[in-house]
Each structure stands twice: as C-alpha cells, then as structure tokens.
Amino acid sequence: VPGHQRDGVQPYFLELWYASFFRYAFTILVVNEFRDGKFDACTISDDHFCPLNAYGDNPYSPNGVAVDRKYVITKILQFRSDAIPFYFYVLFAYALGISCAGYYLIKYQARRRYG
C-alpha cells in the first residue's frame, strides 16, 4: 500500500493524516487527472520505464491490453473515484475555518492593542 494511504500511517499519526490539507488536495488532483482513459500497455522488454510492469509479468495488463486508469486509481492507489466533490467541501471548510480564525485573531489583537 502506498505511503500516503491509511495503512501506511502509524497509529499515533492518524489524526494528522485525517487533518492533512495535502491529502485532500492531492487526491482531488490524482482522481481528476486519471479518472478517464487508459494507460498504454508496455512490457519489460521495451527500452523505457514501464511502471505497470516493473517486475516482470504485468497482473494489471495481461496479454498487453491497455490498463483502465480508473482501475489504477481505485485498486492500486486506493483512492475513491467519487472523492472530488466531498474533498472540495473539506478544502472549503479548511479555508473557511482558517479565515474565521484569522479574523478573530486579528480582532482580538486589535482590541488588546487599541482598547
């Protein structure tokens, strides 16, 4: 499992993993980029890097068939393919929370300084 997924996080860091702004933004970018289309099939005998066939036989692309990008998102990277709307709401809540906290902090500091 990739390191950015829940299983790769130590138990004492799970709260930070759920609160990570970058987790939600990165998931939106990856799902948006790779939700449609197919990856071209490649083999280890090609003279270029083949990420889906780095270790010999390719279980994701048997017989040289192109790999569906949605399969890579959901099965290999373990992202939800319907994550974009919900994660946008999470990022909006982050922005709103930071804006409100900043407003009240500035208001508090101004009240302390100027009475």
Question: Overview of this structure, please?
Answer:
The chain is mainly alpha-helical and 115 residues long. The chain has four helices and two strands. It has helices spanning 14-19, 21-34, 69-76, 83-114, and strands spanning 38-39, 67-68. Strands 1-2 form a two-stranded antiparallel ribbon. Helix 2 runs antiparallel to helix 4.
Architecture blueprint of SSEs:
Blueprint: H1 14-19, H2 21-34, E1 38-39, E2 67-68, H3 69-76, H4 83-114
Features:
115 residues; elongated; mainly alpha; 52% helix; single chain; two-stranded antiparallel sheet
Write a brief structural summary:
The protein is mainly α and 115 residues long. The chain has four helices and two strands. The protein has helices spanning 14-19, 21-34, 69-76, 83-114, and strands at residues 38-39, 67-68.
Which structural class is indicated by helix and strand composition?
mainly alpha
Radius of gyration from the CA trace?
Answer: 21 Å
Helix content: 40-55%
Series of secondary-structure elements, N-terminal to C-terminal: HHEEHH
